[in-house]
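Quick one: structure tokens for this chain, please?
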Amino acid sequence: MLMNPLPIHASTGGPGGMRPDPAHAGGRRAACRSVGARVILALAAALAGGVAFGQPYEIAGISEPVMDSTMAFPATGIVAARHFPEGATVRKGQVLIELEKRLEELDVARRKLAMQLASTELQRLETLASKNTISVSREEIDKKRAESEIAKVELELSEEMVRRRQILSPVDGQIARFFKQVGEACDEERAPVVRVVDTRSCYFVADCEAKAWQRLKLEQAVKLQFDGRDGVIEVEGTVHYIAPVVDPASGLLRIKVLFDNRDQRIRPGIAGRMSVP
């Protein structure tokens, strides 16, 4: 078999001397080294990302409570009372903090009397009409009935004004923080006043790369790890949420894993890790 010879050139060392072209041979060696380097780098990147040889991929994230409410007053005023200390366990519907409401309570009392008077006059007029004691027109009865209904609505409005000066707990949970002290003014509507959390159920929240989220599906069981006071804490969770869009700036996708925390082993807010098989 004929072999292609290496390029040669005339040697300057002697008449008729011939030897391989050193520039061409050096180029071939450099090309081989470059290809080999690229292969090694690709393998290293795959191993580091956990995408080769079936290795799991680890995602870093943070824990947070499923229910986390920071509430505000829809009205302005002076804080009159805080009914629980920070950290206290509260039940849904309990009053946590309230503004001064003396004027609103007096208005409720006045509206109650007005409603009672309107109701009494309506009943008396209807009784007289039924006994034919005096002539009562249908228009008079309709007018009194309308006045009675208006009085009821006005009472409900004044009672609602009282409720708007109170903040009730939306869930069974704990008071994480009060933002206002007794005697302080809430002079801005919707300014944060109290934060309530329910830490019995938590999320592990992470922004992950495509090579990780493509392996996930809703309701998939995964393992989580958190660094606790006595070592690593392992819990199991299920994929609860996968964002429908990727953040165009970072190329990352947000996921949420739901896990049970009724034993309170995890303090929401600490960082953790998730292994994706």
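The first strand starts at residue 8 and ends at 10.
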